[in-house]
Structure prediction request, 515 residues.
Amino acid sequence: MSTIYILWLRQIKRYLRSKSRIIGSLGQPLLFLVALGFGFGPIFQKAGGGNYIEFLGPGVIAQGILFTAIFSGIELIWDRQFGFLKETLVAPVSRLEIMIGRTLGGATIATIQGVIVLILTLLVGFRPNNLWAVPGAIFIMFLIALLFTALGTAIASTLEDFQGFQLIMNFLVMPLFFLSGALFPLQSAPPFLQTISKVNPLSFGIDGLRQTLTGSSHFGLSLDLTVLGVLTAILFVLGSYLFSKIQI
Amino acid sequence: MTDLAIEVKDLTKKFGDFTAVDNISFEVKKGEIFAFLGPNGAGKSTTIKMLTTLLSPTSGRMEVNGFDPKTQQDQARKSFGIVFQDPSLDDELTAYENMDFHGILYKVSGTLRRSRIKELLEIVDLWDRKNDLVKTFSGGMKRRLEIARGLLHHPKVFFLDEPTIGLDPQTRNQMWSYIQNLNKSEQITIFFTTHYMEEAEKVAQRIAIIDHGKIVAQGTSNQLEKQTKTNSLEEAFLSLTGRKIREEEVSGVDRLRMRRRMFTGRR
Ligand SMILES: Nc1ncnc2c1ncn2[C@@H]1O[C@H](COP(=O)(O)OP(=O)(O)O)[C@@H](O)[C@H]1O
Ligand SMILES: [Mg+2]
Prediction:
């Protein structure tokens, strides 16, 4: 327990100390909200889609979580490069505990980031159905955060350096975001896009958020939660396995 | 119970086709100060990584404090402390937090942990700076902190991989006198690697000369000189390996390697 706690605490401390990282990572969501939300809003409305900010809000929250979570997982590469990973790996603690602590830490940070983005969306006019929806939404945010932190850690366990990083951003994180239901409604998308979005776990996360916050859903909340839960478990086991194989 | 702290038999590590550590055997007695002396790339760090459970060997046997680092990892890990060649602190944490993190991982209980951290930080002269972020520390301060941290859980064997690289002579002397004291008062076994002749000669009770992954000779400084019919460790080294360790060059290469590693991650 204490091992998990101290690893979690380390992540939180590092996060709170890097103000530039917190502020920097809010730039993108804000840009999406303002440029897309206000830019496409009128067209969306005219086409009968309703209030676009209401639609976009959960998508942008999920984007903030996705980026922060993957990044927290990938931070493992930094620890490897700057040597701190060795300190953790020679300690007499199980690799599983290290993995759990790291992942919980990263997921907590990503959830906090999601909550901050939620507040940003409120500022530009997003309104959840009611305030009681928020705790449920935070729970789903945490699930999304866990899933993608575990994914980031699993990937980072197999990488030795930063070279793969751009590749991950361009061929994994960006597609995950753009090919989910974050920016457009899946109902009216062409079939091939719908198919792609069905193998994209982020789609289910966003759908779950949308259901809890605004009451509209494409897949249904129980399917959303099942997919998120099962995938998180699988990625966690995979990540732990890959992590335990790290040699320095 | 044997009186051996480290026992290594026919240990080999290959990276692909390349043999970094080539069938080495040696023993370190409890309470001894033992040095691995060799040029850059000789296989010193690779050996330490195998002994400290970070790398698994290709073949061979080893024991640290009676535990096999390959199969009895946690028991072995509890019994040693280590200062790595490259920095291994969290720069974004304070000196105290780095110590605390270590103490918790090694299950040193609350009050004991706090008193040991204070004691150790005072010894390495960092108690005044305990609440400063490590990124504000000089190279020497970081090294001292790593030494203090490695001793927090009272290990029986202390590994130091090129501990004095980048330190000025004064800090170097202070560091060694502290470690030698510790060795005497607490009977801690010291295993260190170096490419500085005079360091091996002055500090170590026994030396193994390692080159191209092989141990070419081992013994006290005197034995090595006798064996090669020379008058100094430096000449002995020259006669055994056919070359000198040129320190300026070595440390230059070191820096280059470090920098390359930062960008490519290759080792
Ligand atoms: N992970 C690795 N993959 C491939 N080669 C390695 C790896 N680690 C070390 N080596 C090589 O093994 C040799 C010994 O390295 P090392 O043990 O670090 O030497 P030393 O510590 O004596 O300077 C070097 O030639 C080094 O390049
Ligand atoms: Mg080395």
Remarks:
- The first strand of chain B starts at residue 4 and ends at 15.
- The beta strands of chain B are 4-15, 18-29, 33-37, 59-64, 80-83, 157-161, 189-194, 206-211, 214-219.
- The interface with chain A takes residues 49, 52-56, 73-75, 77-78, 82, 84, 86-93, 97, 100-102, 104-107, 133, 149, 261-266 of chain B (CB under 8 Å).
